[in-house]
Structure formats: structure tokens, C-alpha cells
Design a protein that fits this description.
The chain is mainly α. The chain has six helices and two strands. The longest helix is centred in the middle third of the chain and has 23 residues.
């Protein structure tokens, strides 16, 4: 599918807002739940999400090379509040005119990318992280078909070579699954998740 700059900014907004919605469902002891991100509690996952939002917001404004913007918040006593503020920051930055034409420095990937491509990375990350949070809580993630199709298109572009996957890299190895999986499941598996291990509670 062909995705324009305006499309990717709007799709990213949809994914980020869904991530905010599911994070806001967490209560009390939920923050210590395990998540699909191995070794991370829900609190730690949300800290990572907040850091990524602030880092991408800085990158959109030409300051992504400064690692201070990518640090996880020191105070995670109110994870949902911290995450909401970080989400607002990145949506504000991505909403600025001409953002897709800027160069984004992304230290985690070791280089800079055109804004439209960088926002695509952020978008697919937040489709997956919204699912990560929902999976930890045992609830469904709610994203429109066009967002899921676009996320799969981006996920298929991520290199799958074992030498580029694992703990030192942004994504875990691909998880094989049945043929004919839907776009969300295929995206999750391409980016190292095993959806069958995280059933939805009723």
C-alpha cells in the first residue's frame, strides 16, 4: 500500500492514542505485570515508551542526537501520567508543518532518516507497544484496518537476518506462525512477538 506523509502522521496519531488508552487501563498492581518484552514489567515498558516519545519528538526538531532526550524518566511513580505527557509531546512535534521533510537523528539505529520514514518506524513501534500493553493487561487492542495494514507494510521492511535481531537490537528474532495470519498477528511475529502466549482475559 502507498502511504503519504499526511497518512503516516495520522496513522501514528491513531496508534499513539490507542497506546495511551490501554496504558490508562492499568491500575495498582498491574504495573508489575510481565509483558511480551522479555524481562520488562509493565512499568518498565511504559518508561521505555515515554522515552521513545520524547526522543522522537526531539528528533523531529533536530535534536535527536542528544541522548539525554532518549533516557527513561527517573520518576515512574505515576506511569500513566508520564506516558500521557510524553505522547502529547511527540504528537505535537509530528504535527508541525513539513515534519516529513526533516532529517531525524535516531541514535538507536545509528543514523539519520527522512522524517516520513522515521515516523513510520515510530508508528509501527506504537502499534506493537499498544499490543504489548494490552497483552500484559489481557485486553484487546483496538486499531482500524488501515492502521494494521500499514503497520504490516512497514514491518515487512525490517531486516530479518538473525545477525540483526536480538537483545542488542531494536527487535527480537522473527517468531514463525501459521499461514494466513491477520495483519496484526503477522506484524507481531515479524517483530518478535508470540501472540498465542498472551491470551485475552474475559
Amino acid at each position: 500500500m502507498t502511504v503519504t506523509e499526511a497518512d503516516i502522521v495520522e496513522l501514528d496519531r491513531v496508534a499513539v492514542r490507542e497506546a495511551v488508552r490501554v496504558v490508562d487501563l492499568a491500575r495498582g498492581g498491574d504495573w508489575e505485570r510481565d509483558t511480551p518484552c522479555a524481562g520488562w514489567s509493565l512499568r518498565r515498558l511504559v518508561a521505555h515508551m515515554a522515552a521513545q516519545h520524547h526522543g522522537f519528538a526531539a528528533a523531529a526538531r533536530g535534536a535527536g542526537q542528544d541522548m539525554a532526550h532518549w533516557r527513561e524518566p527517573a520518576d515512574m511513580s505515576e506511569p500513566a501520567r508520564v506516558h500521557r505527557a510524553a505522547a502529547a509531546a511527540v504528537l505535537g512535534a509530528f504535527g508541525e508543518p513539513g515534519v516529513g521533510e526533516r532529517e531525524f537523528a535516531l541514535p538507536e539505529l545509528g543514523e539519520s532518516f527522512p522524517g516520513r520514514i522515521a515516523i513510520g518506524f515510530h508508528f509501527v513501534d506504537y502499534v506493537v507497544h499498544a499490543w504489548d500493553v494490552a497483552a500484559a493487561l489481557g485486553v484487546e487492542v483496538e486499531l482500524p484496518e488501515e492502521a494494521l495494514d500499514a503497520a504490516l507494510a512497514v514491518a515487512r521492511l525490517v531486516p530479518t537476518e538473525p545477525a540483526l535481531r536480538g537483545p542488542e537490537f531494536p527487535f527480537a528474532p522473527v517468531v514463525e506462525g501459521p499461514a494466513g495470519a491477520g495483519p496484526l498477528e503477522e506484524t507481531l511475529r515479524l517483530l518478535g512477538r508470540a501472540p498465542e502466549q498472551w491470551p485475552t482475559r474475559t
